[in-house]
Amino acid sequence: MKTTETVRRHTAERVRDTLERLVTERDVWVSTAHPDRGPHQVPLWFSWDGRAVWMCTGAASVTARNVREEPRVRLSLPDTFDVVLLQGEAECFSDQDVPEDAAEAFTAKFGWDPRAEEGSFLYVRVVPRTVRAWRGEPELRGRVVMRDGMWLE
Questions:
Q1: pLDDT at 2 over 50
Q2: What is the pLDDT of residues 50-106, one digit of tens each?
Q3: Which long-range contacts (CB under 8 A, 24 or more apart) does 37-42 make?
Q4: How far apart are CA 60 and CA 34, in angstroms?
Q5: Maximum Cα–Cα distance for the chain, whole Å?
Q6: Which one of 25, 76, 80, 123 has the lowest number of neighbouring Cβ atoms within 10 Å?
Q7: 35-69 residues labelled b (16+ CB within 10 A) or e (exposed)
Q8: What domains, with CATH codes, occur in the chain?
């Protein structure tokens, strides 16, 4: 198997690339856990508002149940070479109580408005506290690009 040569990026470049991906990517893997039932992972569509990741899931889903019980979550963009991992706490909004700008941004990105559906949906907002980003082994060292909610330089 041939591997791709990687040039180590500086932290500022990793931050820039991460922010670009948060704007342009469509899917994020969401990892939650329930105190009694254990871990759960699922891919969801997401939008980035410049500060937080917004996702939407069925109000009765396992993800919804888990984040109500245990708000600590981990998110990952779906690329195993250009890794972006986010960690934070989920804040939940019913489809009736979600901030208008967040719901409209989600609808604009995906052409789907969960608020117009028959079933109940839950919007989940995650403000990252820690972000790690790396491309291959050369970037493992220094992979933290956000610590305590602050982007590093």
A1: no
A2: 999 999 999 999 999 999 999 999 999 999 999 999 999 999 999 999 999 999 999
A3: 37/66, 40/66
A4: 14
A5: 51
A6: 80
A7: eeeeebeeebbbbbbeebbbbbbebebebbbbbee
A8: 11-145 (2.30.110.10)
pTM for the predicted model, two decimal places: 0.94
Phi, psi of 26 (to 5 degrees): -105, -40
Question: 41 and 29 in contact (C-beta within 8 Å)?
Answer: yes
Check: CB of residue 30 under 8 Å from CB of residue 43. Answer: yes
And the tokens for 23?
Answer: 């704007």
Cβ-contact 99, 120 below 8 angstroms: no
